[in-house]
Amino acid sequence: MTVSSEPLDLKLIGNKLREEYPELKGRIPESKDAYSGRLDNVFCKVDTSKADNIFGRDWKSGYDSVKGIVFDVLKWEKENLN
Q1: Stretch 38-65: mean pLDDT, rounded?
Q2: Do the domain assignments include residue 52?
């Protein structure tokens, strides 16, 4: 599960991960058609006030959420498959 305050463009996130972590290029496919503009004006607005009241407003970015998942999986593989 990802926790983010903005819409997620997984193609764009995948490309950014490939760029920042070259060792992942063989594991994360490149996407040539990732959207490079702002997504927050493309989709509908979502009222997160109830969640904000319960959990606070300190949301991670979509990129940080997905990056955390990727590195958790890599850590698990290293600990369990080697």
Answers
A1: 77
A2: yes
